[in-house]
Every structure is written in structure tokens, then in C-alpha cells.
Write a sequence for this structure.
């Protein structure tokens, strides 16, 4: 008989959990919620610069700018800021987060999704709250927010919901679990950080292999297969809702630096294969020894720019060098390179918590092997993948042969798997200990062994910290700048020793609390509350090292985009041209806020444009700058903030000759010495063109209408000619029209558009209307409607139908 609905039992506990999560979020992000402050997130500020033209066009017209000229001469807007009206999943996120502002909403939804996972396992409300804190306040979740990786954060946040639906569907109620899985995967894909989704899929793959083995062993494969088919349908729906975003991304990927290069020659670090360059992808590899930061946060010094206080050795060393106290304090408080690990730089360590590590080890002894097998395997895989070039035999094999793995960079991010699996196993261990203490053989002994292992590591580091060298790759620069390097290394040692002792204390307190519970000295309620408080204090304090109230400011965006003298000077020219910011052209999207930029900031720029940067723009090839219609250069010199680029060719021009080449290599090399105003370099193997010479001074051509998705030119030519346009060639969406009739256009000068045109007065138009966007948006709309109907139906059917549980699923 189905138990009757009871608000106090079925709803109130979850309401309390939501209130607790809201309080935690409000306290941590009080500057955002109550003081109208914001975080100066580097990547978000760059995003706002790169997306300005797109957003302005949307506000002005209500249409989507699927292309933008604001960065890298022009590129699709899909991975910058494109809305898909057919995708309704954004409304789900707003509901689940109560439409909280960014940052606060990120952590709140992380807490909610972790809570859902643990409740789906059958844990009590209070234990699930403790677990949600352990999942959510892992240091990496806060560090990536400080850096501005908001979409990465949200993609990670929904991973526990995906696992919740998967486990609930396979182990308990198929229909409710499938509905939860569909919503979780939909939201995970919605934020389009495919690298994080990829890591999640690796974990799901491991989980699936373990489930198949157990199903075969226990004769439940038919039931597993049936449930798997339902989950497959749910996955198809989730992909369908996000199809527009995924389809356009997949289409563009082949043209980006993550696609296959057309070059056969090595090109300044860019891979000539299909995917990223190996060195580029593995540049951020976690050190093998650095893995201990999961247990001891500042083992390797924490951040590449961390402040010190007046008790530090470095402060005293500056005083001894003759600095005034105020000056010494200012130097050490502004941040020093205290990180001494193998990565080029870091914003902070991945710290899952000393108590979580202790409970994780305990889980190896007491949690059922069906759980530990895939959670431990996922943790090991996560750590090994994060080692990158520091464990090259395995990771280079993965990069070269595992599907799609070579599309992703910064392999240290693979630790997101561990920050899911380690708290999960830790909470399973705590749950097992609290619910089955009288059934587990030698539990007190296993508790002491687990505490001894983790606390012992901390004690050894605390005692023998002085045996490490603490030398960093940045030390030589510090020595040249006359910084007291010995004092800085002494502070690195002090940080290691201090955090080792800190983790030791938390482990001892947690183990002691659980030991007293085993001996009936404290109740289960008190044990849960105590563990929750210890975990919160442990993680919260470390998080505040990297994201605290002092990091929030007012008017962040307005201040960052305050027009400079150079901006004001350039903006007096209202014609259509491009700008290059010489001090930092290819790692800067601030310029794009006001100008059409030759440079920009984006992790997936077009590969051909990257080739052009490497071979020509970075070497100041004036002809290439002229053909890109680069009219102004921002110099960074206060005495002469703006410099005119000599003779930019404008938006379009007629050339006198075609220089035929036979390959991409020849095409790129031909730009080294050529007259861009007179010659068009064309790869005739891709774009056959018979005519080689045209009349000099054939006529005039000018741009009369500009929109991101639409360009209109008027020209008058005495004879047939070849017009070259200072616009990036992209065949998947741009269609040319001559006097309103569709015509073909070709690629010239490696990246630009060109077209043979007849004599006389005519108009030329370019429209960007990619079929992938229209088709993708339509499928997204249909799938959104189906998802809504299927989820409602599945929940209704799942509640009405008594769930069929798969055998031996109750064990933890």
C-alpha cells in the first residue's frame, strides 16, 4: 500500500534544506546580494567585451547576431553569446536558482544538485545537507568563479543531478529517475562547457561498466538493459533540447583551432593534426606530488599571487633591506608568487577537504565494493588525467587515440571528477558508519586506520617540511628584481607546515567525534551536526583565501570599460575599420567593446586566423594588417596613445592579378611578401579561377550597409574584376548575392572573401543565415516541448506505479 502524503515528512525537510542553502549562499556572497557589488572576473569582463556587438544588435533589433566582427577580424557568435529561443532549459535554471544573480546562483545550484544526489541515495535531510556542503565548497568551485569560469562552474554543478537520476533509475524508481536524469543532463549541456561534460561522461562510462558486470554476475542484465533503454531516450531528449547549441558548436569546431589543420608544415606551436597542439593542451598539468593538495591545500604555496601578513619572513626581510614598515606591508599584501609547483601559474589548489579525504579512505574499508569500484576508479582516472605531461605514457595515448579528448586543454581540470567521486564516497562511508555501526566488523579499528593513514601523511609533512626545496620557476625573476628569495622560500615552507598541521587537526577532530559515536558517547544527530560543522569550517576557511569579501567591488564593468584616451580618439572616426591593440592584441577583448578588433580573447578562435596570427600578424606584416582594414593601432604609450596604420585597404577593393597557389601552405607563405592592394592569393585547388589578370584601377567599391549578419556593397567597374573583401571567409553560413541573386564567392589571401564581378553598376550583399542554427533551433523547440511532456508523464507514472528495485541495490 502506497503511504499517504505527509507534508511534514515529505516536503518540510527539503524546504529546510533549501533555506539552509540559501543562508549559506547569502552569507558567502553577501556583497553580491546586499551591497550591489560584483567580482572583477577576468573571463567575464573579456566576455562582455567580445559580446558587446552581439548584445547591442539583439537589444536594438530583437534578432540574433550569429556573426560578429568584434574579435579576430570576424567569427561566428555561437561560442560567444548566442540565444536559442527553442531551448527552454534556461527557464529551468532560473526556477531552480530562484533567479539568483551569477556567483550566488552558481553555488546555490551546486548545493541543490548535490543534495538531490544524496537524497536520491536515501540519506536523511541533515546528512544530505552535510554532503552538499562537502560537494559544493570544494576549493576549485570557488576558484573558478574568481577567474570568471561561470559556465564551467554551472556545468559541474549539474553533474550530481545527472548521477542522481542515473542511480535512481537503475536502482529504484525507473521513471522518476529517468525524468531526473533527463533534466540534469539537459542542464549540464545547456551551459555548453563540453570539457566538463566529457569528464562526466568518462565517470558515467566507468559506472556503466561496473553496473553491467554486476548485472551479469547476478542475473539482472535484462532489467538493466530495459532501464538503460529508457535512460537512452532521456539522454536523446536532453541532447535534443540543446541540439541547436551542440550542432552549431560541432560545425564551428571543425574550423576552429580544435579542428583539423590544412597545413602540412609545423606552425608556431599549432598542431597540424586534428585537434589541439599537444604541448598547448598539456601546458597546465597537475604535478604528481601536487596531488597532495587534495588533502593539504597550500602544500605547493597556494596561488601564484598570494598575500602575506606582517608576521611573514618576507615582510621582515624587506624591513631588514631598509624598507619602511608601510612599504613592506604594501609589497607583501599585494601578492607574491608563493606557488612553487610545476604549472605555469595557478589561482589556487584543488582542495576537497581533509575530512573528506579521511572519510574517503574509510569508505575503502566499509562501503560495498559495488560503489567503491567505480568511485575509486573514477578518482584514480581523474588524478592521472590531471597529471597530463607528468604521466605522458598514458595521457599522450589518451590524447592521440581516445575520441574527442584532443579537443580540450588545461588537463588539470580533470580533477573535477575527483571532486565529485571523493565527497560521494566520503558521504557513503559516513552514512554507512551512522546507520550500520553494529553490523560492520572491526569498525572502530577501520576508523582508526583511516584516520591514521590520512593524519599520518599530514604529520609527516608537518615534521619534515624542511626537506623540500621550495624553488620555483619564477624565482630567478624575483632574484633579478632583488626580492628576498630565501625569505619567500621560508614562507612557502611555513605555509606547507601550517596547512599540514591544520589538516591533521581536522582529521583528528572528525575521527574523534565518530569514535565517540561508536562508543555511544554522542548521538547520531550530534555526530552529523558536528561533522557538518567541521567540514563547513574546513572548506569555508580555505575558500576565503581565494574568494573573499575584499575581492568584490562596485561598478566593476563600468570602471573596466571606461573609455581611454585612445578609445575616445579612435571613436571620432565613424567609418568601418579595425583596430589592433599592440600591447596585448591576442589576449584582450576589452578593445572589442568599442572597436572591431584584429585581436581578441577566445579559446576557440578560427584555425586559419590563428595561422595568420602566428605567421604574419605577430610578426607585424603590414600588408596583412592593410588587408584586414586595420586603420588604428593602440600603442599603450601615453604620449602617443594611437597610431595610424599606413594605407589600410578599406572594406573592399579591386585587385589587378591573381597569384595561384596549390596548397594551404603555399597560400599562407605567399602573404610574406606581396602587395595586398594589387594581388589576391588564391588556392586554385579549392577555388578554381581561370583568369589571372584584371584591369588596374578598374573602378570603386564601397560598403553602404553594415550589420553583423548582413553587409551591402555598391560598386561600379569599367570591366569584369575581382573584388576582395576585408571580411573573414566562412562557407558554413555566408551567402553572397549580386543584385539580389545568389552567387558564389571564394577565399583569397588565406582568410578573406573574394568574388569575380561583372562590369557596370551593381550591388553585392552578404547574408549570414546558417542552416545549422535554423535546424538546430527547430529541433531544440520540439525537444523542449517533448521533454516537458515526458518529464510530467514520467513523474506521474513513477509516483502511481510501485517501483521495481533491482536486486542487491540497497547495500552501501
Amino acid at each position: 500500500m502506497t503511504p499517504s502524503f505527509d507534508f511534514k515528512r515529505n516536503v518540510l525537510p527539503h524546504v529546510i534544506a533549501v533555506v539552509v542553502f540559501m543562508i549559506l549562499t547569502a552569507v558567502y556572497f553577501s556583497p553580491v546580494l546586499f551591497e550591489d557589488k560584483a567580482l572583477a572576473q577576468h573571463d567575464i569582463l573579456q566576455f562582455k567585451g567580445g559580446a558587446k556587438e552581439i548584445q547591442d544588435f539583439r537589444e536594438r533589433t530583437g534578432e540574433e547576431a550569429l556573426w560578429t566582427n568584434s574579435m579576430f577580424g570576424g567569427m561566428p557568435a555561437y561560442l560567444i553569446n548566442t540565444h536559442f529561443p527553442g531551448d527552454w532549459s534556461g527557464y529551468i535554471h532560473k526556477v531552480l536558482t530562484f533567479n539568483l544573480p551569477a556567483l550566488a546562483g552558481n553555488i546555490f545550484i551546486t548545493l541543490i544538485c548535490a543534495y538531490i544526489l544524496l537524497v536520491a541515495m536515501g540519506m536523511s535531510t541533515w546528512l544530505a545537507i552535510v554532503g552538499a556542503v562537502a560537494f559544493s565548497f570544494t576549493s576549485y568551485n570557488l576558484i573558478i568563479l574568481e577567474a570568471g569560469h561561470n559556465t564551467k562552474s554551472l556545468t559541474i554543478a549539474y553533474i550530481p543531478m545527472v548521477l542522481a537520476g542515473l542511480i535512481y533509475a537503475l536502482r529504484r524508481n525507473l521513471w522518476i529517475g529517468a525524468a531526473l536524469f533527463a533534466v540534469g543532463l539537459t542542464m549540464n549541456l545547456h551551459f555548453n562547457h563540453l570539457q566538463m561534460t566529457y569528464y562526466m561522461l568518462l565517470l558515467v562510462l566507468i559506472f556503466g561498466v561496473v553496473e553491467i558486470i554486476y548485472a551479469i554476475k547476478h542475473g539482472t542484465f535484462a532489467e538493466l538493459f530495459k532501464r538503460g533503454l529508457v535512460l537512452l531516450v532521456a539522454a536523446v531528449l536532453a541532447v535534443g533540447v540543446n541540439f541547436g547549441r551542440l550542432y552549431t558548436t560541432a560545425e564551428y569546431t571543425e574550423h576552429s583551432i580544435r579542428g583539423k589543420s590544412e597545413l602540412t608544415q609545423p606552425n608556431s606551436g599549432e598542431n597540424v593534426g586534428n585537434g589541439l597542439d599537444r604541448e598547448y593542451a598539456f601546458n597546465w598539468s597537475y604535478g604528481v606530488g601536487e596531488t597532495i593538495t587534495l588533502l593539504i591545500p597550500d602544500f605547493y604555496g597556494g596561488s601564484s599571487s598570494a598575500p602575506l601578513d606582517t608576521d611573514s619572513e618576507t615582510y621582515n626581510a624587506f624591513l631588514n633591506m631598509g624598507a619602511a614598515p608601510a612599504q613592506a606591508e604594501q609589497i607583501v599584501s599585494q601578492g607574491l608568487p608563493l606557488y612553487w609547483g610545476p604549472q605555469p601559474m595557478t589561482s589556487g589548489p584543488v582542495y576537497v577537504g581533509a575530512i573528506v579525504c579521511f572519510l574517503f579512505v574509510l569508505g575503502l574499508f566499509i562501503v560495498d565494493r559495488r560503489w567503491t569500484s567505480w568511485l575509486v576508479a573514477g578518482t584514480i582516472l581523474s588524478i592521472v588525467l590531471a597529471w597530463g605531461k607528468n604521466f605522458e605514457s598514458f595521457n599522450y595515448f589518451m590524447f592521440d587515440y581516445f575520441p574527442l579528448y584532443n579537443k580540450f586543454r588545461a588537463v588539470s581540470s580533470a580533477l573535477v571528477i575527483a571532486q565529485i567521486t571523493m565527497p560521494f564516497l566520503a558521504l557513503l562511508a559516513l552514512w554507512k558508519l551512522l546507520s550500520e555501526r553494529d553490523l560492520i566488523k572491526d569498525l572502530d579499528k577501520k576508523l582508526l586506520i583511516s584516520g591514521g593513514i590520512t593524519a599520518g601523511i599530514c604529520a609527516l609533512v608537518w615534521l619534515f617540511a624542511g626537506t623540500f626545496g621550495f624553488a620555483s620557476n619564477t624565482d630567478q625573476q624575483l632574484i633579478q628584481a632583488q626580492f628576498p628569495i630565501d625569505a619567500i622560500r621560508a614562507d612557502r615552507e611555513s605555509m606547507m607546515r601550517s596547512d599540514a598541521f591544520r589538516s591533521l587537526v581536522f582529521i583528528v577532530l572528525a575521527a574523534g567525534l565518530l569514535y565517540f559515536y561508536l562508543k555511544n558517547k554522542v548521538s547520531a544527530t550530534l555526530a552529523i551536526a558536528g561533522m557538518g560543522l567541521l567540514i563547513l569550517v574546513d572548506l569555508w576557511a580555505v575558500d576565503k583565501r581565494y574568494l573573499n569579501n575584499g575581492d568584490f567591488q562596485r561598478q566593476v564593468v563600468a570602471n573596466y570599460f571606461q573609455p581611454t584616451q585612445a578609445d575616445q580618439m579612435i571613436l571620432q572616426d565613424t567609418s568601418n575599420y579595425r583596430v589592433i591593440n599592440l600591447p596585448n592584441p591576442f589576449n584582450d577583448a576589452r578593445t572589442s567593446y568599442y572597436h572591431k578588433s584584429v585581436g581578441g580573447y577566445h579559446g576557440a578562435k578560427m584555425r586559419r586566423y590563428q595561422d595568420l596570427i602566428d605567421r604574419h600578424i605577430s610578426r607585424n606584416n603590414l600588408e596583412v594588417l592593410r588587408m584586414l582594414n586595420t586603420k588604428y593601432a593602440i600603442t599603450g604609450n601615453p604620449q602617443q596613445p594611437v597610431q595610424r596604420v599606413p594605407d589600410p585597404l578599406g572594406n573592399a577593393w579591386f585587385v589587378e592579378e591573381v597569384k595561384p597557389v596549390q596548397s594551404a601552405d603555399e597560400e599562407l607563405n605567399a602573404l610574406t611578401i606581396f602587395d595586398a592592394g594589387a594581388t589576391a592569393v588564391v588556392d586554385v585547388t579549392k577555388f578554381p579561377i581561370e583568369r589571372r589578370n584584371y584591369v588596374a584601377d578598374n573602378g570603386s567599391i564601397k560598403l553602404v550597409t553594415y550589420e553583423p549578419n548582413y553587409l551591402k556593397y555598391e560598386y561600379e567597374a569599367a570591366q569584369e574584376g575581382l573584388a576582395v573583401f576585408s571580411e573573414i571567409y566562412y562557407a558554413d553560413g555566408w551567402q553572397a548575392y549580386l543584385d539580389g541573386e545568389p552567387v558564389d564567392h571564394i577565399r583569397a589571401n588565406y582568410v578573406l572573401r573574394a568574388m569575380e564581378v561583372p562590369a557596370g553598376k551593381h550591388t553585392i550583399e552578404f547574408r549570414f543565415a546558417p542552416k545549422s542554427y535554423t535546424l538546430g533551433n527547430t529541433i531544440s523547440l520540439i525537444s523542449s516541448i517533448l521533454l516537458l511532456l515526458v518529464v510530467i508523464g514520467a513523474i506521474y507514472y513513477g509516483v502511481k506505479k510501485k517501483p521495481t528495485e533491482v536486486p542487491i541495490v540497497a547495500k552501501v
